Each structure stands twice: as C-alpha cells, then as structure tokens.
Amino acid sequence: MDIEELLPQQPEGGKEEQRKSPLLSLEKDLELYAASIKEVAVEIMVEGISANPIFVAHQHTVSIGELILDRKELNTEWTIQASTFEEFVEKGIISPEKKALFLKSYKKPEDYMCVFVIVPEGANFIYYPYQVKSKA
Q1: Which of 102, 89, 85 is nearest to 1 (CA)?
Q2: Would residue 7 count as lying in a domain?
Q3: pTM to 2 decimals?
Q4: Which of 61, 107, 118, 126 could be cross-linked to 112 through a Cys-Cys bond (beta carbons 3.0 to 4.6 Å apart)?
Q5: Under a CB-based contact definition with an 8 Å cutoff, are residues 130 and 111 in contact?
Q6: 53-58, strands of its sheet edge to edge
Q7: What domain of life does the native source organism fall in (predicted)?
Q8: Comparing 17 with 117, which gets the higher pLDDT?
Q9: Is 136 inside a domain boundary?
C-alpha cells in the first residue's frame, strides 16, 4: 500500500476538507527522516537482525520496536521506531497465516521504507520511497 492510498480523496469540485489528514504531516516527516531511516534499515539488514525492517510511525506511545526519531526532540509531528517482521509476528500484529502474504507484498527495503502507521482510527502498512520523485 502506498501513502496516497491512505490519504483522503478530495471530492470533485467540492469544498476544501475541514480537517487535514494527519498523513499529510507524516509524508512531510518521512521526507525529512528518509536518510536516517534508510541508514537504520541497512544496519538492521547488514547486522543480520532481519531482512525485513519495519518502521512504526506514531504520535502516542507504542510498545513495539526501538525509538530512533523522537518527534518531541526533533520538533516534528511523528515519532519513528525501528522494528522487524519477526517482532511483528512475535507480537501477533502479523498473524502466522498472513506471514507469506506479507513477505510476498514486502517491497525492496533498499528502495522503500515499510512503515506501520498508527492513528486513532487504526493502523496500516504503507511503503514510502526513500527517493521521492521531484515535482518538476
């Protein structure tokens, strides 16, 4: 799933949305964090911790992964924690029946960060490219 799929769709010719999606600020923070996240992803893979790093983006407190980017320290909107596919399975976020399906859809970690986004309405996985295409 790409971030665009989680962003609210604007009604055609309708009014501007009353409330901005928190995912707009997430996209801004992921652009800012991309180099740091990629560095951690490479480290996770090179050290043999996991071939499938997962990053958790949240604005509250969560008990999965290790804190790598704190929104309070960085004066941003989102905190990022580093985790792995294995921890997600161990904690039951990815059920044993869904492991193969998840790995099949997992995008190349050298090109995309796998982000588990937690918002009050729920949580979902997105894949965000490290290199965002420039808007020419």
Answers
A1: 102
A2: no
A3: 0.81
A4: 107
A5: yes
A6: 66-69, 79-84, 53-58, 112-119, 122-129
A7: Bacteria
A8: 117
A9: no
